[in-house]
Amino acid sequence: MADSNDFLDYPKGQVALGPGDLLDCADITIAFEDGEKVLATLRMNPAGSTHGMRSASATYKSLISKEGFERDYMTKYRKREVIQLRLKVPGMVFSCVGRFSKPQIVANVDNAIEFTITIVGKCSGDPV
């Protein structure tokens, strides 16, 4: 019989907006774009590469209860406010600063109402 100590503990994702409390969320994605581009010359194709603008985006999903959104996402989206998102993962804390983009609400039959939003800007990660 398996002992409960034989299984690893996998924590759920949590994010914080600004200095606020941590929120439970799911399907967290942080994508880094380094802007690397291939270059060609008259003699050689490809000849090498050059780096461009670095950017990042963070997307996460949360559920909407019958009381409404956990935070005032849509007002911040409409006003184009700059926000900070902190994502804690084991061993690291990622900080993303930017604006909300692409809000999406999905209501499936026999399922919870899901809200997905993306933060476009710059992200950095620091070891805990």
Can you describe this structure?
- With 128 residues, this protein is mostly beta strands.
- It has one domain: Hcp1-like (Pnp Oxidase, Chain A).
- Helix content is 5%, strand content 55%.
- It has 1 helix and 8 strands; from the N terminus they run E-E-E-E-E-H-E-E-E.
- It has one helix at 73-79; strands at residues 13-17, 23-33, 37-39, 48-50, 55-64, 83-89, 92-107, 113-127.
- A 6-stranded antiparallel barrel has the order 1-2-5-8-7-6. Strands 3-4 form a two-stranded antiparallel sheet.
- Strand 3 and strand 4 (48-50) form a beta hairpin.
- The longest helix has 7 residues, at 73-79.
- The radius of gyration is 19 Å and the shape is globular.
Oligomer: single chain
Rounded to the nearest angstrom, the radius of gyration is 19 Å
First-to-last CA distance: 36 Å
CATH architecture: Roll
User: Major sheet: size, sense and barrel closure?
Assistant: 6 strands, antiparallel, barrel
Share of helix among residues?
A: under 10%
What structural class do the secondary elements suggest? mainly beta
Query: What string gives the helices and strands in order?
Result: EEEEEHEEE
- Low-confidence regions: none
- The top-level CATH class is Mainly Beta
Beta content: over 45%
Shape: globular
Total strands: the figure is: 8
Main β-sheet, spatial strand arrangement: 1-2-5-8-7-6
- How many helices does DSSP assign? 1
Tell me the number of structural domains: 1
Put the structure in a nutshell.
This protein is mostly beta strands and 128 residues long.
